[in-house]
Structure prediction request, 414 residues.
Amino acid sequence: MQRENLVPIFHEYIHYIHEISTPVGNVGLSLDLIKKSLFSNFFDPRKDSCESLGMTGDLCDRYRYMNASKALLEGSKSVNAKILKIELAGNQLQNFQILSGDMLGSRSIEIPILTAEIYQNDKFEVDLYFGKFFIYEGLAYELDRELDKQLLGLSVIRDDMRFTEYTVLRLVALKIYPDIDTKSFLTVASLSLAYINCGFVFIDLLRVLKKRVDAGERLEDVLEQLKQQVRELMAGQSDDFEGAQEEIIAIFTGRPQLLTAFQYICGQAKATYAIRKADPTFEVDLIFSGQFETLLEKASICDYMYQFTDLDSFSRDFLGTSSMDDATSQACKVLISYSHYQECHREFSTAKLESRNIETPCPFFSCCNLQLRQEHAKICASRPWRIFEVSARTDQRYCWYGNGVLEFKGITEP
Prediction:
């Protein structure tokens, strides 16, 4: 099963590598943690209650700033239509907010605007913000297509998702540099992730590359010089990056499951940052040289889930662990639950969230075989945070989701 599904697993694995090993990925993680820290101030103080009281006041404003900053970095997302053509429509100066200690700071970054001609029953134009999302998806798609080509012994890639958000990166690259090869524009894309304004940097570096090659320099030489610039940049930021990982770990002192999870994640971040600092485009180079197994050795794959299509969802899907010890794997499931709870609520109270009558299943609903899942399936399928209250008021034996709420409340602090 793993061999048959290697390519789609690999696509998600590339996203994981970019999140933990790049400066722009680490900024996204920091913004998420600030949001979670702000959100945790609004819990119902009753020990057996899972409810959030809803965010208010200055902390709510800060939460919204962090949310807006994260959205700004990511740019536009799914297009849900066939993309026929891309035009570069200039840049837009945006204010990027970040919390440093107790102070809210800001800086301005330039975000490229793309005008896309799309088809959805009819032709029309939309403006897209070119940020982290399109670079991440473009890198993962082009690399998984290259791996697919190698595994099947094909002469060209099977371009199943062309004209979608997965190929916006390619369309932008070819608009700027029409005869650039895939490996070269992916190299530039990987380099751009060393910068917060990665979309702007990707376009700028492509223009620099084309200008210098048109002037007579060898493409390989220019790319190596661009790599050296990123090596120096990342080396200069290395102490700050490592310090940020230690600060993240310290946040969860007294919350043993989350502490274990972030010790693992931050350890992986330090290790892969060091690899990228020495070889800024290692994932692109290894794939195009046919060494994808070496990539797996450099950056251990995270846990994953196989999802099937049977209508009966009880214990249907397979949750796999390939590189963690059991305690760490369990702790990471608690972290996923913790994140799910916060993302479902955002700034709203539990009462307001539940009044919308939108069913939100537990992330592990379809792979869980616990007695709790069998006896309280409706809760797990619609309002999984409420499973915390079931355990808190009975045997106090918590599932992953219950533990996520428990540690978010800080009850496990000494």
Q: What stands out?
A: Residues 149 and 209 are 27 Å apart (CA to CA).
